[in-house]
Amino acid sequence: DFCLSRGLGDVYKRQFLSRNDLIPPYWKIAEHFGWRSIDTARDRVVALAQKGYIERNEIGGWRFVRDGAKA
User: Fold this and answer.
1) How far apart (Å, rounded) are the C-alpha atoms in residues 22 and 66?
2) Which of 17, 32, 45, 50 has a CA 20 to 30 Å removed from the CA of 56?
């Protein structure tokens, strides 16, 4: 789903990834998009994982799938 995959914002996620090698925490995503609930952010992240755009790293955090390949 195009809208869902762009839900975190290409520029924002790439900047955060380049600094942190994982996606922002739920509260930071919610803050960035002006959502009142971190549950909304969590739901979006889970949906991105189900679609193969993000995956769990070695310590259980979320990161974007590398090399453009879906998980």
Assistant:
1) 11
2) 32
Amino acid identity at 53: Y
Strand-pair partners of 56? 62
What angle is formed at CA 20 by the lines to CA 14 and CA 23, rounded to 5 degrees? 60
Candidates 24, 22, 53, 60; CA nearest to 41 is: 24
Burial of 48 (0-12, 13-18, 19+ CB in 10 A): buried
What would the pLDDT profile of 4-18 be if each residue is shown by its tens digit? 556 666 777 777 766
Are 48 and 67 in contact by the 8 Å Cβ rule? The answer is no
